[in-house]
């Protein structure tokens, strides 16, 4: 009985760690993409301004 409790707790712990890693990876990806969009905003604005002339 104690063995299966250990297996259950280990499975829950492993799934929580994998979930946290997935969440952090997605968060970093979103932040990097947002930084790229924010930094390239003026370049895109200048390109659109030149095209509109």
Description:
The mean pLDDT is 93. This protein has 53 residues and is mainly α. The protein is built from 1 helix and no strands. Helix content is 94%, strand content 0%.
Could you tell me the number of beta strands?
A: 0
Which stretches of 5+ consecutive residues score pLDDT under 50? Answer: none
Quaternary structure of the protein: single chain
The overall pLDDT average reads: 93
Q: Count up the helices.
A: 1
Largest sheet: none
Beta-strand content: under 5%
Structural class: mainly alpha
Describe the global form.
rod-shaped
Query: What is the N-to-C succession of helices and strands?
Result: H
Helix share, percent: over 70%
Tag the structure with descriptive keywords.
53 residues; 94% helix
